[in-house]
Amino acid sequence: MNHLIRKNKILLISPHSPLSINSGAGQRTRLIYNTLQINNDVDLFLISDPADQDKVLLIKHFNLVACKPISPYGTRRYYRFFRHFSPWIVDRIAYHSLASKVELGIDDKLSNVLTGIFEKKRYDFIVARYLKSASLTNAFQHAPVLVDIDDLDIEVWQSRLGISGDSLFRKLLMHRYLNSLNKEFPKLIHRTNGVWVAKSSDLQKVIHQNIAVLPNIPYHYAIDDNIRYPLPWGKDNQTIIIVASLGWAPNKDGLNFFLENIWPLVIARLPDANLKIIGSGLDEETKARWSEILRVDVLGFVENIVPYYQHASFSIAPLYHGGGTNIKVLESLSYGRPCVCSTHAARGFEDVEGLYVCESADIFAKACLKLLKNREECVQKGHAGFEYVNYHFTYSVFQKAVNHVLYNTDVVDELGGGLY
Description:
- The protein is of the alpha/beta class.
- 43% of the residues lie in helices and 15% in strands.
- It has helices spanning 24-36, 52-62, 87-98, 100-103, 108-120, 131-136, 153-161, 168-191, 220-223, 249-269, 284-291, 306-310, 327-334, 361-373, 375-392, 395-406; strands at residues 9-14, 41-46, 64-67, 125-129, 145-150, 194-197, 211-213, 239-243, 274-278, 296-300, 314-317, 339-342, 355-358.
- Helix 1 crosses helix 16 and helix 10 crosses helix 14.
- The longest helix has 24 residues, at 168-191.
- The chain is globular, with a radius of gyration of 22 Å.
- It starts with 8 loop residues before the first strand and ends in a 14-residue tail after the last helix.
Protein backbone atom coordinates (compact mmCIF):
# COMPACT_ATOMS: atom_id res chain seq x y z
CA MET A 1 0.00 0.00 0.00
CA ASN A 2 1.29 3.46 -0.86
CA HIS A 3 0.90 5.59 2.25
CA LEU A 4 0.79 9.31 1.64
CA ILE A 5 1.36 11.87 4.35
CA ARG A 6 -1.73 14.07 4.56
CA LYS A 7 -1.10 17.69 5.48
CA ASN A 8 -3.22 18.44 8.53
CA LYS A 9 -4.17 21.67 10.25
CA ILE A 10 -3.11 21.26 13.87
CA LEU A 11 -3.56 23.46 16.94
CA LEU A 12 -0.95 22.89 19.63
CA ILE A 13 -2.13 23.88 23.12
CA SER A 14 0.60 24.26 25.73
CA PRO A 15 1.25 26.00 29.06
CA HIS A 16 4.96 26.10 28.19
CA SER A 17 6.38 28.42 25.57
CA PRO A 18 8.54 26.87 22.83
CA LEU A 19 10.80 29.91 23.27
CA SER A 20 11.81 28.78 26.79
CA ILE A 21 14.34 26.14 25.83
CA ASN A 22 16.33 26.51 29.07
CA SER A 23 13.75 24.24 30.69
CA GLY A 24 12.89 20.66 29.84
CA ALA A 25 9.21 21.56 29.47
CA GLY A 26 10.00 24.30 26.96
CA GLN A 27 12.36 22.03 25.05
CA ARG A 28 9.75 19.30 24.73
CA THR A 29 7.18 21.83 23.51
CA ARG A 30 9.63 23.13 20.89
CA LEU A 31 10.50 19.61 19.71
CA ILE A 32 6.84 18.62 19.39
CA TYR A 33 6.02 21.80 17.48
CA ASN A 34 9.00 21.40 15.14
CA THR A 35 8.12 17.77 14.44
CA LEU A 36 4.46 18.50 13.78
CA GLN A 37 5.18 21.38 11.41
CA ILE A 38 7.41 19.31 9.11
CA ASN A 39 4.37 17.94 7.26
CA ASN A 40 1.49 19.99 8.71
CA ASP A 41 0.21 23.51 9.27
CA VAL A 42 0.58 24.17 13.01
CA ASP A 43 -0.73 27.04 15.15
CA LEU A 44 -0.08 27.65 18.84
CA PHE A 45 -2.45 28.44 21.72
CA LEU A 46 -0.37 29.28 24.79
CA ILE A 47 -1.93 28.87 28.23
CA SER A 48 0.13 31.63 29.81
CA ASP A 49 0.76 35.35 29.47
CA PRO A 50 4.15 35.88 27.79
CA ALA A 51 5.94 39.22 27.70
CA ASP A 52 5.12 41.49 24.77
CA GLN A 53 8.50 40.93 23.09
CA ASP A 54 7.99 37.18 23.37
CA LYS A 55 4.53 37.44 21.81
CA VAL A 56 6.08 39.06 18.74
CA LEU A 57 8.54 36.16 18.40
CA LEU A 58 5.85 33.56 19.06
CA ILE A 59 3.59 35.02 16.37
CA LYS A 60 6.46 35.17 13.88
CA HIS A 61 8.06 31.78 14.49
CA PHE A 62 5.33 29.61 16.02
CA ASN A 63 2.07 30.98 14.59
CA LEU A 64 0.71 32.06 17.97
CA VAL A 65 -3.05 32.58 17.62
CA ALA A 66 -3.95 33.15 21.27
CA CYS A 67 -2.48 33.31 24.77
CA LYS A 68 -4.41 33.27 28.01
CA PRO A 69 -3.34 32.22 31.53
CA ILE A 70 -5.37 29.85 33.70
CA SER A 71 -8.03 31.67 35.69
CA PRO A 72 -7.29 31.98 39.44
CA TYR A 73 -8.84 29.11 41.36
CA GLY A 74 -10.83 31.49 43.55
CA THR A 75 -12.77 32.77 40.53
CA ARG A 76 -14.52 29.40 40.19
CA ARG A 77 -18.04 28.81 41.45
CA TYR A 78 -19.17 30.59 44.62
CA TYR A 79 -15.60 31.37 45.69
CA ARG A 80 -15.60 34.33 43.32
CA PHE A 81 -17.92 36.23 45.71
CA PHE A 82 -15.28 36.16 48.48
CA ARG A 83 -12.05 36.41 46.52
CA HIS A 84 -11.72 40.21 46.77
CA PHE A 85 -11.27 39.92 50.55
CA SER A 86 -8.08 37.85 50.26
CA PRO A 87 -7.26 36.46 46.78
CA TRP A 88 -4.36 34.24 47.91
CA ILE A 89 -6.27 32.59 50.77
CA VAL A 90 -9.44 32.08 48.74
CA ASP A 91 -7.42 30.66 45.82
CA ARG A 92 -5.73 28.13 48.10
CA ILE A 93 -9.02 27.10 49.74
CA ALA A 94 -10.68 26.73 46.34
CA TYR A 95 -7.76 24.72 44.99
CA HIS A 96 -7.92 22.15 47.78
CA SER A 97 -11.68 21.97 48.17
CA LEU A 98 -12.44 21.62 44.47
CA ALA A 99 -9.69 18.99 44.06
CA SER A 100 -9.39 17.76 40.46
CA LYS A 101 -12.22 20.03 39.28
CA VAL A 102 -9.71 22.91 39.14
CA GLU A 103 -7.04 20.79 37.48
CA LEU A 104 -9.04 18.55 35.16
CA GLY A 105 -12.22 20.60 34.88
CA ILE A 106 -13.14 23.33 32.40
CA ASP A 107 -11.84 26.88 32.71
CA ASP A 108 -14.65 28.96 31.18
CA LYS A 109 -12.32 31.74 30.00
CA LEU A 110 -9.91 29.34 28.31
CA SER A 111 -12.82 27.44 26.80
CA ASN A 112 -14.21 30.67 25.34
CA VAL A 113 -10.82 31.51 23.83
CA LEU A 114 -10.65 28.11 22.13
CA THR A 115 -14.20 28.51 20.84
CA GLY A 116 -13.19 31.84 19.35
CA ILE A 117 -10.18 30.27 17.65
CA PHE A 118 -12.36 27.62 16.00
CA GLU A 119 -14.85 30.24 14.82
CA LYS A 120 -12.03 31.67 12.70
CA LYS A 121 -10.32 28.46 11.60
CA ARG A 122 -11.01 24.75 11.67
CA TYR A 123 -8.37 22.22 12.69
CA ASP A 124 -8.06 18.51 11.94
CA PHE A 125 -6.39 17.82 15.28
CA ILE A 126 -5.69 19.43 18.61
CA VAL A 127 -2.40 18.39 20.21
CA ALA A 128 -2.36 19.21 23.92
CA ARG A 129 0.69 19.31 26.13
CA TYR A 130 -0.79 17.58 29.19
CA LEU A 131 -4.27 16.23 29.77
CA LYS A 132 -4.91 19.28 31.93
CA SER A 133 -4.54 21.60 28.91
CA ALA A 134 -7.10 19.62 26.92
CA SER A 135 -9.55 19.57 29.81
CA LEU A 136 -9.28 23.23 30.87
CA THR A 137 -9.84 24.45 27.31
CA ASN A 138 -12.65 21.94 26.67
CA ALA A 139 -10.74 20.84 23.58
CA PHE A 140 -12.76 17.64 23.20
CA GLN A 141 -15.74 19.66 21.96
CA HIS A 142 -13.91 20.93 18.89
CA ALA A 143 -11.69 18.31 17.20
CA PRO A 144 -9.93 14.97 17.75
CA VAL A 145 -7.49 15.45 20.63
CA LEU A 146 -4.01 13.95 20.93
CA VAL A 147 -2.42 14.42 24.34
CA ASP A 148 1.20 14.48 25.41
CA ILE A 149 0.90 13.19 28.98
CA ASP A 150 4.60 13.79 29.79
CA ASP A 151 4.33 14.05 33.59
CA LEU A 152 1.71 11.71 35.05
CA ASP A 153 -0.17 13.86 37.57
CA ILE A 154 -0.91 10.83 39.73
CA GLU A 155 2.80 9.99 39.85
CA VAL A 156 3.75 13.57 40.73
CA TRP A 157 1.35 13.72 43.67
CA GLN A 158 2.33 10.29 44.92
CA SER A 159 5.96 11.40 45.04
CA ARG A 160 4.96 14.50 47.02
CA LEU A 161 3.30 12.30 49.63
CA GLY A 162 6.72 10.87 50.40
CA ILE A 163 8.06 14.22 51.64
CA SER A 164 8.41 13.89 55.39
CA GLY A 165 8.13 17.62 56.13
CA ASP A 166 4.48 17.88 55.13
CA SER A 167 1.87 18.19 57.85
CA LEU A 168 -0.83 15.59 58.40
CA PHE A 169 -3.45 18.05 57.14
CA ARG A 170 -1.52 18.61 53.91
CA LYS A 171 -1.11 14.87 53.39
CA LEU A 172 -4.86 14.39 53.86
CA LEU A 173 -5.51 17.04 51.22
CA MET A 174 -3.10 15.35 48.84
CA HIS A 175 -4.76 11.97 49.41
CA ARG A 176 -8.11 13.56 48.63
CA TYR A 177 -6.72 15.07 45.47
CA LEU A 178 -5.15 11.77 44.41
CA ASN A 179 -8.43 9.92 44.87
CA SER A 180 -10.15 12.49 42.69
CA LEU A 181 -7.45 12.20 40.01
CA ASN A 182 -7.73 8.42 39.98
CA LYS A 183 -11.42 8.77 39.17
CA GLU A 184 -11.19 11.51 36.54
CA PHE A 185 -8.00 10.49 34.73
CA PRO A 186 -9.33 7.33 32.97
CA LYS A 187 -12.49 9.16 31.86
CA LEU A 188 -10.50 11.90 30.15
CA ILE A 189 -8.01 9.47 28.60
CA HIS A 190 -10.97 7.63 27.06
CA ARG A 191 -12.00 10.86 25.29
CA THR A 192 -8.63 11.30 23.57
CA ASN A 193 -7.77 10.00 20.10
CA GLY A 194 -4.14 9.35 20.90
CA VAL A 195 -1.63 9.58 23.73
CA TRP A 196 2.10 10.03 24.17
CA VAL A 197 3.82 9.06 27.41
CA ALA A 198 7.40 9.89 28.39
CA LYS A 199 8.61 6.48 29.56
CA SER A 200 7.92 2.81 28.94
CA SER A 201 6.67 2.13 32.46
CA ASP A 202 3.79 4.55 31.86
CA LEU A 203 2.36 2.16 29.27
CA GLN A 204 1.14 0.05 32.19
CA LYS A 205 -0.65 3.03 33.73
CA VAL A 206 -2.24 4.65 30.66
CA ILE A 207 -4.51 2.36 28.68
CA HIS A 208 -5.21 3.47 25.12
CA GLN A 209 -5.32 1.88 21.66
CA ASN A 210 -3.28 4.64 20.04
CA ILE A 211 -0.30 5.24 22.31
CA ALA A 212 3.47 5.60 21.98
CA VAL A 213 6.46 6.37 24.17
CA LEU A 214 7.70 9.86 23.31
CA PRO A 215 11.01 9.99 25.18
CA ASN A 216 12.57 13.15 26.47
CA ILE A 217 15.85 13.51 24.60
CA PRO A 218 19.01 15.61 24.98
CA TYR A 219 17.93 18.84 23.32
CA HIS A 220 21.18 19.41 21.46
CA TYR A 221 20.50 16.22 19.46
CA ALA A 222 17.77 18.14 17.66
CA ILE A 223 19.81 21.29 16.93
CA ASP A 224 23.39 20.08 16.47
CA ASP A 225 23.97 16.91 14.47
CA ASN A 226 27.72 17.31 14.84
CA ILE A 227 27.71 16.28 18.51
CA ARG A 228 27.61 12.52 18.17
CA TYR A 229 30.68 11.55 20.13
CA PRO A 230 31.82 11.62 23.76
CA LEU A 231 33.57 14.84 24.72
CA PRO A 232 37.33 14.57 25.25
CA TRP A 233 38.37 14.39 28.87
CA GLY A 234 40.04 17.29 30.66
CA LYS A 235 43.05 16.85 32.94
CA ASP A 236 41.08 17.45 36.13
CA ASN A 237 39.40 14.32 37.45
CA GLN A 238 38.11 15.77 40.73
CA THR A 239 35.20 17.84 39.43
CA ILE A 240 31.53 16.90 39.74
CA ILE A 241 28.84 18.83 37.88
CA ILE A 242 25.12 19.28 38.35
CA VAL A 243 22.97 21.02 35.75
CA ALA A 244 19.37 21.73 36.73
CA SER A 245 16.57 24.28 36.65
CA LEU A 246 17.00 25.50 40.21
CA GLY A 247 13.78 27.50 40.25
CA TRP A 248 11.94 24.14 40.28
CA ALA A 249 11.41 23.03 43.88
CA PRO A 250 12.25 19.30 43.44
CA ASN A 251 15.66 20.16 41.94
CA LYS A 252 16.44 22.68 44.65
CA ASP A 253 15.28 20.34 47.43
CA GLY A 254 17.30 17.45 46.02
CA LEU A 255 20.49 19.46 45.73
CA ASN A 256 20.01 20.87 49.20
CA PHE A 257 19.75 17.28 50.51
CA PHE A 258 22.93 16.35 48.63
CA LEU A 259 24.87 19.29 50.07
CA GLU A 260 23.73 18.59 53.62
CA ASN A 261 23.93 14.79 53.70
CA ILE A 262 26.16 13.52 50.89
CA TRP A 263 28.74 16.17 50.05
CA PRO A 264 30.27 16.14 53.57
CA LEU A 265 30.91 12.40 53.18
CA VAL A 266 32.65 12.98 49.85
CA ILE A 267 34.78 15.93 50.90
CA ALA A 268 35.88 14.17 54.09
CA ARG A 269 37.52 11.43 52.01
CA LEU A 270 38.65 13.56 49.05
CA PRO A 271 39.31 17.16 50.16
CA ASP A 272 40.32 18.19 46.61
CA ALA A 273 36.96 17.26 45.09
CA ASN A 274 34.81 20.14 43.91
CA LEU A 275 31.22 20.57 42.83
CA LYS A 276 30.04 23.00 40.16
CA ILE A 277 26.34 23.94 40.28
CA ILE A 278 24.87 25.23 37.02
CA GLY A 279 21.31 26.35 36.41
CA SER A 280 18.99 29.32 36.42
CA GLY A 281 16.25 30.32 38.84
CA LEU A 282 18.06 30.01 42.17
CA ASP A 283 17.09 32.59 44.78
CA GLU A 284 19.83 34.81 46.21
CA GLU A 285 19.51 33.56 49.79
CA THR A 286 20.07 29.93 48.77
CA LYS A 287 22.84 30.88 46.37
CA ALA A 288 24.72 32.72 49.14
CA ARG A 289 24.26 29.82 51.56
CA TRP A 290 25.45 27.19 49.09
CA SER A 291 28.41 29.34 48.03
CA GLU A 292 29.75 29.22 51.59
CA ILE A 293 30.03 25.41 51.48
CA LEU A 294 33.57 24.12 51.09
CA ARG A 295 34.62 23.32 47.48
CA VAL A 296 31.24 24.28 45.99
CA ASP A 297 30.96 26.74 43.09
CA VAL A 298 27.48 28.12 42.32
CA LEU A 299 27.78 29.33 38.72
CA GLY A 300 24.14 29.95 37.83
CA PHE A 301 23.16 30.10 34.17
CA VAL A 302 25.91 29.59 31.56
CA GLU A 303 25.61 30.16 27.82
CA ASN A 304 27.62 27.10 26.76
CA ILE A 305 27.41 23.97 28.88
CA VAL A 306 29.85 21.89 26.81
CA PRO A 307 33.16 23.04 28.42
CA TYR A 308 31.78 22.31 31.88
CA TYR A 309 30.87 18.76 30.95
CA GLN A 310 34.27 18.32 29.31
CA HIS A 311 36.13 19.22 32.49
CA ALA A 312 33.86 17.18 34.77
CA SER A 313 34.36 13.53 35.68
CA PHE A 314 30.64 12.88 36.03
CA SER A 315 27.33 14.53 36.89
CA ILE A 316 24.87 14.04 39.73
CA ALA A 317 21.06 14.06 39.82
CA PRO A 318 19.83 14.00 43.43
CA LEU A 319 16.08 14.20 42.78
CA TYR A 320 13.66 12.79 45.34
CA HIS A 321 10.21 13.98 44.29
CA GLY A 322 8.45 15.54 41.32
CA GLY A 323 7.19 14.16 38.01
CA GLY A 324 8.55 13.51 34.57
CA THR A 325 11.90 12.17 33.47
CA ASN A 326 15.14 13.91 34.30
CA ILE A 327 16.49 15.06 30.93
CA LYS A 328 19.77 16.19 32.48
CA VAL A 329 20.59 12.55 33.19
CA LEU A 330 20.46 11.88 29.45
CA GLU A 331 22.27 15.10 28.63
CA SER A 332 25.22 14.02 30.76
CA LEU A 333 25.38 10.63 29.06
CA SER A 334 25.08 12.23 25.62
CA TYR A 335 28.35 14.05 26.32
CA GLY A 336 30.00 10.86 27.52
CA ARG A 337 29.82 11.57 31.25
CA PRO A 338 28.30 9.02 33.65
CA CYS A 339 25.68 10.15 36.13
CA VAL A 340 25.23 9.32 39.80
CA CYS A 341 21.55 9.70 40.58
CA SER A 342 18.83 8.93 43.08
CA THR A 343 16.31 6.17 42.42
CA HIS A 344 13.66 8.81 41.74
CA ALA A 345 15.82 10.59 39.14
CA ALA A 346 16.38 7.27 37.33
CA ARG A 347 12.66 6.62 36.73
CA GLY A 348 12.21 5.80 33.07
CA PHE A 349 15.91 5.07 32.67
CA GLU A 350 16.03 1.73 34.48
CA ASP A 351 17.86 -0.01 31.60
CA VAL A 352 20.08 2.90 30.59
CA GLU A 353 23.83 2.31 30.65
CA GLY A 354 26.17 4.74 32.38
CA LEU A 355 24.10 5.38 35.51
CA TYR A 356 24.86 4.74 39.16
CA VAL A 357 21.44 4.52 40.83
CA CYS A 358 21.63 5.12 44.59
CA GLU A 359 18.95 4.41 47.16
CA SER A 360 20.60 6.15 50.13
CA ALA A 361 22.92 9.03 50.96
CA ASP A 362 25.70 6.63 51.94
CA ILE A 363 25.52 4.69 48.66
CA PHE A 364 25.38 7.98 46.74
CA ALA A 365 28.58 9.19 48.45
CA LYS A 366 30.35 5.88 47.81
CA ALA A 367 29.49 6.03 44.09
CA CYS A 368 30.85 9.57 43.84
CA LEU A 369 34.09 8.57 45.60
CA LYS A 370 34.49 5.50 43.39
CA LEU A 371 34.31 7.57 40.19
CA LEU A 372 36.52 10.37 41.52
CA LYS A 373 39.22 7.83 42.32
CA ASN A 374 38.94 5.81 39.11
CA ARG A 375 39.22 7.73 35.82
CA GLU A 376 39.22 4.50 33.79
CA GLU A 377 35.83 3.47 35.15
CA CYS A 378 34.50 6.99 34.49
CA VAL A 379 35.55 6.74 30.86
CA GLN A 380 34.13 3.24 30.38
CA LYS A 381 30.81 4.12 32.00
CA GLY A 382 30.64 7.38 30.08
CA HIS A 383 31.19 5.67 26.74
CA ALA A 384 28.60 2.98 27.52
CA GLY A 385 26.06 5.67 28.43
CA PHE A 386 26.83 7.63 25.30
CA GLU A 387 26.32 4.62 23.05
CA TYR A 388 22.99 3.80 24.70
CA VAL A 389 21.59 7.33 24.51
CA ASN A 390 22.87 7.86 20.97
CA TYR A 391 20.82 4.86 19.87
CA HIS A 392 17.64 5.04 21.95
CA PHE A 393 17.13 8.78 22.62
CA THR A 394 17.71 10.52 19.29
CA TYR A 395 15.61 13.11 17.52
CA SER A 396 14.73 10.49 14.91
CA VAL A 397 13.21 8.28 17.61
CA PHE A 398 11.30 11.31 18.93
CA GLN A 399 9.91 12.18 15.48
CA LYS A 400 8.80 8.62 14.76
CA ALA A 401 6.92 8.47 18.06
CA VAL A 402 5.08 11.72 17.30
CA ASN A 403 4.06 10.48 13.85
CA HIS A 404 3.15 7.03 15.16
CA VAL A 405 0.27 8.54 17.14
CA LEU A 406 -0.57 11.38 14.76
CA TYR A 407 -1.00 9.09 11.76
CA ASN A 408 -2.12 6.12 13.84
CA THR A 409 0.91 4.08 12.57
CA ASP A 410 -0.14 4.32 8.90
CA VAL A 411 2.93 6.22 7.73
CA VAL A 412 5.58 5.12 10.21
CA ASP A 413 7.29 2.89 7.63
CA GLU A 414 7.21 5.71 5.09
CA LEU A 415 9.10 7.89 7.58
CA GLY A 416 11.93 5.44 8.15
CA GLY A 417 10.94 2.23 9.87
CA GLY A 418 9.44 1.16 13.14
CA LEU A 419 9.39 3.05 16.39
CA TYR A 420 12.61 1.62 17.76
